[in-house]
Give the backbone structure.
Amino acid sequence: MSRILAILQKEFLQMKRDRLTLGMVFMLPLVQLLLFGYAIQTEVKHISTVVFDQSMSIESRDLLDSFSSSGYFDITGTAKGYAEITKMIDSGKAKAGIIFPPDFAEKLRKGETAPVQVLVDASDSMVSNSAIAVANSIGLLKSQKIIMQKTGVQSLPYDIRVRPWYNPDGITAYYMVPAILGIIVTMTMVMMTSMGIVREREKGTLEQLMVTPVKSYELMIGKVIPYIALGYLQITVALLVGGVVFGVPIRGSILQLYLLTLFFITASLGIGIFISNIARNQMQAFQMSFFVFLPSIMLSGFMFPREAMPSIIQYIGNIFPLTFYLTIIRGIVLKGIGFPYLIPQVMSLLVFSVIMMTLSIIKFKKKIA
Amino acid sequence: MEYVVTTCELTRTFGSFTAVDRININIRPGEIYGFLGPNGSGKTTTMRMLCGLLEPTSGSGSVLGYDLARESEKIKQKIGYMSQKFSLYDDLTVYENLVFYAGMYSIPYHERKKRVAEMIEMAWLAGREKDLPANLSGGLKQRLALGCAIISRPSILFLDEPTSGVSPTSRRMFFKIIQKLANEGTTVMVTTHFMDEAERCHNIAFISGGRLIANDTPDNLKNNVIEGCMVEVDLPDAMERIEELESLPYVKECSIHGPLLHVLLDSEGNVAVFDRYTGVKAREITPSLEDVFISLAKLQRKQES
């Protein structure tokens, strides 16, 4: 016990003197949240659109109004032919093109189906998904109106009432900020601890430590605890920024959030300390932590919804603590749920932490070769 | 207990390379045991095995009665070790480094201050407590590392080339501390390349190519190892003439010592012939430790090839 205290004291002293790292711990959540919180918008609006209107009629003007008033399409220019539209989309000046045939108005007046072509640049699927969905629904709504006028039907047969719970206004920041917080913690915790042992190995101080009576578990615990404190510090900064700048509400209990976060921090530290035990030098440790970090972002549900992934990939995603933590933090922050709903996630993180720490303790031999 | 360190056929291999080859050593309590040999001869590997840092491949050994292979953690509680590049934390002050190691050896809290103060006094570090090791001279760093290694008052101290890269004054100071520790009963095993340090050891082991090739007191080594007659001669063009001289049938070997040339002749009877050959009067001398080691190393190389 007294040895753990001695290691703790040393680690805190070293941490205190390492101004750069300490600054990073504060600045990282601040800068990343500000950058990503504003930058990441999954809903694509204001798609620049060119129009090739061969009809030049009230009807075509009316439909165009519907497109632009939806907020999704910004009519940025008109084209004088197919070639020009193609060129605009090819060059990226426009992401969508709307083409009215010459007989558009005529057909509408006669009561025939009037085709309108909407071209979408699907090389960016986020953009094209929005554009396609909105274009389709505009078509449906407009058709519906005309049919109702013609038939004199007053009400529609179906009335589907959608209520988006937890985030009724669909504010992306509500969804992103807690997730970014998870990313930041993964990044700093894994990377910083991954340096912990290997740095001492490189500097030669580890050899000196190995001839002392210190036990493997004492060293691991002493190395990990200071970073728990650091992790909490980061989370506090991130939650403050999220609340003050983005107005993200914390609907659940803050106390529970802090308590359950512990399991995520220990799981991340577990990965870090394990990496530090198997890496030969700091460069290797850095590369290995990246190897954990990238799939964490991709597979955890931060970037892409896990529901859309093939089940095997979903299983692989379950290796990463971030996957479970995203459920926990979104659950508490947005849904306002508590521990009883999150038991499976918390247990997974707990098991993960225990396995990683145990592996590290076993792997760390007080021997040189 | 007669010996505090004993090994029996201690061997360590790395892949196909045998770093330490069936070594037997015995160290008596309270003696300074010098461990000498060329670079890569297996000194550090042997020392690391004795400290419990490396597992022996075969053979056995014990330190303070504890078995090397099975009880290395018990050994670690009783020994001090200073590795080749003294590893201090450069972001901790002198004082903090010492306090940390005091903690690693679980020295009771009420005693830590006293122990740290003792070490600071021993290492002549008074007034530098708040300095970072980066701002200390090589000699001070080395003595601080020693302080960290002996803060637990170990009964055996292992020093792996503690004096490399340190000024002569600091080296002398360091060795005085070592001698004082030995006088107080600490057993010291030290590897070194410096003959003046070797001279101060009670016992010297010479290791080459992983084999122990000589083990005796410095005096016995000087008197018994070299067969023949060692002379010292002052030749102005000594450097160029080594090869020529070594080709003489009665000359065994030559080596340069400062401005002088040491020549080993087959016997005393050759001195007069040698004087006539060079035209300079050669002086008979007792071989120095350095002569002993050069001839031991040459012997070993000849046997290998």
